[in-house]
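ok so I'm stuck.
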Amino acid sequence: MQVQLDEEVWEMSDTVRLEEVIARVSDMAHDRGCLVTNLTVGSRSYTDRDLVPSVLSQVAGPLGNVVATSQPLQSIVASGVASAQEYGRSLQADGDQLVQAFRRGEKRFRQLDEWFGRLADYVEWVELTRTVESTVVKSDSMVNWLQEVLDARERTDIVGLADLLEFEIMPRLPHNP
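replied:
not stuck anymore, here's the structure
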């Protein structure tokens, strides 16, 4: 089976699992300071959400050749700055609404859980940006407070959640990652 990453092409055994092929492609891209941005196996394009265990465990050969393209992390981060800033503002506004609801005694745990998912995506982006820019994560990073927020959520402590969101997480939610 033929595997291609950008301009480099090599052969791999038809009997290896797809996860082994993708791991090799990903490692090679990482070694170049890049991230795989497009992946095609046979005639099908895949996103990271498509790569579930049942897909990854398949023998790769019958699926077809693998073609991947990558981009430097710096260019990915640079192209996403404006979107990340808008996303941060949206998180801030929605977080403010959650704080106000908790202060009124409303238990909006479903909305909080959805907001946490979005916050996790944003934190991942911020941390990637800091890594790419070779900056050190500050000790007051919101990451340090996430476990306390999750613990308060588990206890259904709406006052504690409101306090943590308002005084610890929201002020650390940068508009300019």
